[in-house]
Amino acid sequence: MKKIIFLLTLVHLIVISAYAQTTGDIIKAKAGEGARQGAEIAVEKTADKVTDKALDKLFGGKKNKKNHGETSNSVSKQVADTSTTMETKSSQPNSLKTYSKFDFIAGEKILGYDDFEKEAVGDFPGRWTTNASGELMTVDAHPGKWLNISKQGFYIPEFVQSLPDNFTLEYDVLYINPAKREGANTPSLALQLIGKTGKNSFDLTVDRAYFELDPYGGTISIASYTKMGEKILSNEFLVAGLDRINTHGYHVSVWRQKTRLRVYLNETKVVDAPSLLDPAAKYNTIRFATSLNNDGSNWLISNFKFASGLPDTRNKLLTEGKFSTTGILFDVNSASIKATSYGALKDIAAVLTENSTLKVKIVGHTDSDGDDKANLELSKKRADAVRAALAGEFSIDPSRMETEGKGETQPVSQNNSAESKAQNRRVEFIKL
Description:
alpha+beta; Jelly Rolls; 2 domains; 8-stranded antiparallel sheet
């Protein structure tokens, strides 16, 4: 009997040691506490759904897991991504054809942009606010800086001052469960459009519409409510591949047209709800909401881009003789076109196809960061890449397209903010 007890104890110690080693390897602590911690609140987003008995059944008794509002301290971490099941920005497909059904086109004027480039790892970004806590970190195999928003509460980009009737929003998101635990409270992540009436962006009694990613059930849910709690619309449906154990990465594209909301995860349209938004509501704030977390999983976001209006490609190119877009995106310091640019390229290709005698000059532009000569060379390579994509993916005759690079020499906005720099990183089409 003593031998059996000894062996069981030994096995138990080995299992604990292996678990601790795995967790330590995957999440590596750096330094610094998350800033801007707020008072603890109870965000009863699941309570919004309690009145909907059908949805309650779909959630399978998970009401306790959606209590937004936990406040806690946090330290900066570096998360090692060990198993990515969905495409992320670091593993874009080589061919744009992967996005052949992607009809999203980014707005023309950039109103807000944040890639956290100038912020320090371990800090909470200066242009955001929260009633929980969070910190910037780096992630193995995923370039750039990421904001960890895994504590229960709200995370709000304060530089978004209003929400036009027509706007687009893009951001990258990662879900990582480093210890691969199956806790009772795997956090969900919701993007909310709210109509705050005062200075308190954390108010619960507001007009609100949202879509939510829920790894616990592998679902997306959408809903909208008035500030009095009256439900306008709600629904829930499964998302192929989404679970709470594996790592998931998405480029999220959101497109609002008055009451209509479309949402894309990578190249796939997952929401197209014509009447989700209340026409009487005055939506003016964007906020991310995360729910109770006790399994150690992480939600991280980066590359936040908010823009208004839709490009009038045909009119501007044919009538005005010039069209400029920030919707064609490239990898950092590279001429490699991101696959999420497919919608913008398709839009331009349609104009060229319908007007077979039209010839254009494609001009690349950069912001002022970096070496002048390197920027000039990069802008030329990017123009060449756009020409190659239009010829190769959309069969536009290359002889109809000239290319040129202007580097940072012709800014359309001052290079003194993230938004202005993003506006200057553009591709221009000039009628010949």
